């Protein structure tokens, strides 16, 4: 099973989602992340995201931002989008229904709200990053259960 987490810049939310998910799934799973913009390409995650993950014993400092590619839609089985704008952008890059079916909103699995979004912590503070971490942790647990059931 190959899972791709996608946000806007691939320096805050999706690197955290990648790091969290990697701690939860079996070794034969492949988890990666990407952004819809290439502005931060090659950069390590935001230092607040790195610190927040480290507070929970997860090291995401070696990740590098990259934009989503055409090949990702063939490589990955599941593509989880952090918010509705990201989802719209990702869906617009799909080339057929099979690829479209791989794409969903990350928080949809929690079922609390059809359009639930992971808030962008980029303009916020460490408290916002911790809240995002908690949300992502719940979402990753639910996704894991769904995939493994
Ligand atoms: P992310 O957060 O999508 O969770 O990585 C952001 C990162 C960068 C920007 C916005 C959001 N930015 O405007 O550069």
TrEMBL record:
<dbReference type="InterPro" id="IPR023485">
    <property type="entry name" value="Ptyr_pPase"/>
</dbReference>
<dbReference type="InterPro" id="IPR050438">
    <property type="entry name" value="LMW_PTPase"/>
</dbReference>
<dbReference type="InterPro" id="IPR036196">
    <property type="entry name" value="Ptyr_pPase_sf"/>
</dbReference>
<feature type="domain" description="Phosphotyrosine protein phosphatase I">
    <location>
        <begin position="1"/>
        <end position="146"/>
    </location>
</feature>
<dbReference type="GO" id="GO:0004725">
    <property type="term" value="F:protein tyrosine phosphatase activity"/>
</dbReference>
<keyword id="KW-0378">Hydrolase</keyword>
<protein>
    <recommendedName>
        <fullName>protein-tyrosine-phosphatase</fullName>
        <ecNumber>3.1.3.48</ecNumber>
    </recommendedName>
</protein>
<keyword id="KW-0904">Protein phosphatase</keyword>
<dbReference type="InterPro" id="IPR017867">
    <property type="entry name" value="Tyr_phospatase_low_mol_wt"/>
</dbReference>
<dbReference type="Pfam" id="PF01451">
    <property type="entry name" value="LMWPc"/>
</dbReference>
<comment type="similarity">
    <text>Belongs to the low molecular weight phosphotyrosine protein phosphatase family.</text>
</comment>
